[in-house]
Amino acid sequence: MSNVTALRTIRIAERPNLIWLEVETDDGLLGLGESFRGAQAVEAVLHEQVAPWLIGRDARHIAAVSRHLMNPYLGYNSASAEIRAASAVDIALWDLAGQRQGVPVYIALGGGVRERIPVYNTCAGYAFNSGAQRRIVEGREAAAGPYDDQVAFMHDAGALAESLLSENYGAMKIWPFDGYAAASGGNTISLADLKAGLEPFRKIRAAVGDRIEVMCELHSLWGTHAAARICQALEDYGVYWIEDPLFKMDDAGALQDLRRQTRAPICGSETLADARTFRKLLAADAVDVVMLDLAWCGGFSEARKIAALAEMHGKPLAPHDCTGPIALMAGLHLALNAPTAIFQEVVRATLATWYRDLVDGLPVIECGQALAPVGPGLGSRLRPEVRLRADATVRESGRPR
Ligand SMILES: [Mg+2]
After folding, report:
1. How far is the CA of 394 from the centre of ligand 1 (A)?
2. Is-above-0.70 flag for pTM?
């Protein structure tokens, strides 16, 4: 047996979107999960709804736990607080499964299709997603450090591409159109704004030619007319994908309409949860590349179903980062196991700084590829000092050790 004895959540005021979940079992193991956004709501779901049901149950039966937690009465179509809580639980249970077997999670999932996966750098800098609001760079904002890639792509995208190539990154993701969405609520984009948004792509191609792949992130800020205009304008720059172009990325009809209007490949979406939502998009031929976030979609149990759907439809898969270190580790394990995975997202600024202050294991990147983790489970633990921080909120249910 490996019965759950306690749940512990930890969050820190410095990164208010992040929440970690530690699951303790009576065989002395500790599993780690994570989710992101609405951390206090996720914490409440975990302690008030999940803990009374989960404590005392056998942590080995992940399929049963996933089936129960992924079917709340409300909130399962997308990454609701309930599904984010379920995601954290599932990641922690797979961490436990790997530890119990003495193997990395991707081995516990059935092993690797590959032993390394290419990464791309999301040019987020140090703090794009850390605060209550996503950071928008406008004007001549000063760089916060050498890896403030969000300032770099807005002002000197060519030099940024050269910097990334010098570190062997073969692909980069940028979002120069975000600042122009507010003017119309995303319903339209002017020609002047369109041309300004294209500048970083022009500079990248002028500086490094076709030596780097470039993805454009649209962050679900646009309606179909504006999104089509942006996608059509980007066709000349050979973008690898355009991500989350529309307001609602579960809208298969609107995505089909957009795909009919552009040659640029469409990627979606980390915002979605539940394999059924992905099934509808794939059945409707609404996306070219499947993006998913392990800490939002339902964890490994749901992600492997989404990966299977991507495989059945012949679509490439690309796990998300730009939230927290455990979602990244989980994404990497899935990317090693999933047959059609092509990339794992990383943010070099956070990998080099605050991710490593929080956890003791992160992807090892060599020649633009993340190597397979070697330790048991996820291969990463929350550093013990995190829960002792002055800005930490720690809440426990059950009988913690
Ligand atoms: Mg994204």
Report:
1. 29
2. yes
Distance 60 CA to ligand 1 centre (A): 32
Tell me how far the alpha carbon of residue 179 lies from the centroid of ligand 1, in angstroms: 16
Q: How remote is the CA of residue 219 from the centroid of ligand 1, in Å?
A: 6
- Do 344 and 387 belong to one domain? no
Same domain, 207 and 287: yes
Residue 296: enclosing H or E segment and its boundaries? helix 294-297
H or E segment to which residue 262 belongs: none
Does residue 392 share a domain with residue 276? no
Q: Could you tell me the distance, in angstroms and rounded to a whole number, from the CA of residue 37 to the centre of ligand 1?
A: 14
Q: Could you tell me the distance, in angstroms and rounded to a whole number, from the CA of residue 52 to the centre of ligand 1?
A: 34
Bridge partners for 289 per DSSP: 267
CA of 289 to the centre of ligand 1 (A): 12
Eight-class DSSP state of 218: -
For residue 24, what are the domain limits?
4-105+381-398
30 with 133, same domain: the answer is no
Q: Does residue 353 sit within a domain?
A: yes
pLDDT tens sequence for the chain (401 residues): 899 999 999 999 999 999 999 999 999 999 999 999 999 999 999 999 999 999 999 999 999 999 999 998 877 778 899 999 999 999 999 999 999 999 999 999 999 999 999 999 999 999 888 777 888 887 778 898 999 999 999 999 999 999 999 999 999 999 999 999 999 999 999 999 999 999 999 999 999 999 999 999 999 999 999 999 999 999 999 999 999 999 999 999 999 999 999 999 999 999 999 999 999 999 999 999 999 999 999 999 999 999 999 999 999 999 999 999 999 999 999 999 999 999 999 999 999 999 999 999 999 999 999 999 999 999 999 999 999 999 999 999 999 88
CA 368 – CA 364 distance, rounded (Å) = 10
What does the alpha-carbon distance between residue 297 and residue 314 come to, in Å, rounded to a whole number? 20
Neighbours of 25 (CB within 10 A): 23
Q: Which two tokens stand for residue 67?
A: 């089936």
On whether residue 269 sits in a domain, the answer given is: yes
Domains held by the chain: number: 2
